[in-house]
Design brief:
Elements lengths: L1 E7 L6 H16 L2 E5 L3 H6 L2 E3 L23 H6 L1 H10 L4 E6 L1 H12 L5 E4 L15 H22 L2 E6 L6 H10 L3 E3 L7 H13 L5 E6 L27 H13 L3 E5 L11 H19 L5 E6 L2 E6 H4 L8 H8 L3
Bound molecules: adenosine-5'-triphosphate (ATP), 6-O-phosphono-beta-D-fructofuranose (F6P) and magnesium ion (MG).
Amino acid sequence: MRIGVLTSGGDCPGLNAVIRSVVHRAVVDHGDEVVGFRDGWRGLLEGDHRPLGLEDVAGILATGGTILGSSRVQPAQLRDGVERAKEHVVGLGIDAVIPIGGEGTLKAARLLSDAGLPVVGVPKTIDNDITSTDVTFGFDTAVGVATDALDRLKTTAESHQRVLIVEVMGRHTGWIALNSGMAAGAHAIVVPERPFDIEELTEVVGKRFADGKRFAIVVVAEGAKPREGTMAFETGGTDVYGHERFAGVARQLAVELEQRLGKEARPVILGHVQRGGTPSAYDRVLATRFGWHAVEAAHRKEFGMMTALRGNDITLVPLADAVEQLKTVPEDRYAEVECVL
Ligand SMILES: Nc1ncnc2c1ncn2[C@@H]1O[C@H](COP(=O)(O)OP(=O)(O)OP(=O)(O)O)[C@@H](O)[C@H]1O
Ligand SMILES: O=P(O)(O)OC[C@H]1O[C@](O)(CO)[C@@H](O)[C@@H]1O
Ligand SMILES: [Mg+2]
């Protein structure tokens, strides 16, 4: 069998671990050949590929990023390129394509699968927002990085009696904010699923100071917004890929809280540091298991499916289900953290 693999969308720790696992399982156990398409869907649309042997994946298990490169391609370009992608797959004698990506990549994977390409998806994202899998790899590492940053920020915030508003990634969902905020003992957690009321937030932070505490840490997901009509809020339009551009929720919250509380408030934006660097042990294991199962699915010709973690088991779920809706933070998960804020 000849397998083509690609990584698409925002990178995340663990991508290399999947690539390595696919190559090992395919080459060592099945005697397959593996090729990698460069820079995500761009590589497939242009037929830009490289062979991937055991030597190519040696030493990459613990490395961040992706040895194949990643990219975003305008969805319209992808839709127009379906026939070209098919020609490259047929021309290269590829029997299975394994795209590793987030919900956007998996939507594209479904499109190609519906057009007749033999596709087995692997879900990745630091955002942990893909419904059909309990967890995505990358998330554990990102939460670890954010938690470490929050621990550090607490000590400096206390020294200077400041309010620090720490913006973490999460454009549609607040999983990183929720888990890192819970792990680090933040004093308020603001997520996109619950539009915030600035009066309430001011009260929460103000009460801490009134109780004699000398600092506060607010964790906010980048996609969080105020409850309609409660606060003037800048937005940033849309980029060429159709993604919302953010105007900086932490910056805006810092201005507002400083004015309302008369305490110095500073924004801290963690940004891409959450996506870079070495994956946690948990993410390496999950990524390795996903790679193994994706190769098995390809050999069983279970196409149009995606690997998923359910409990302790890796299963396959239809790509169609994976992209139906995002996995958002439910109310009861938020309730669990409220009493420790
Ligand atoms: N609705 C769609 N139809 C066709 N192709 C799509 C669609 N959505 C996304 N894609 C393709 O998949 C690529 C990756 O999608 P996106 O940029 O949303 O990242 P992702 O895979 O969701 O990862 P992440 O959100 O974690 O960065 C896009 O650049 C585009 O080429
Ligand atoms: O690297 P980019 O294109 O700025 O993308 C950032 C987005 O990608 C993610 O890291 C993963 O989806 C989001 O949390 C974030 O909003
Ligand atoms: Mg996405």
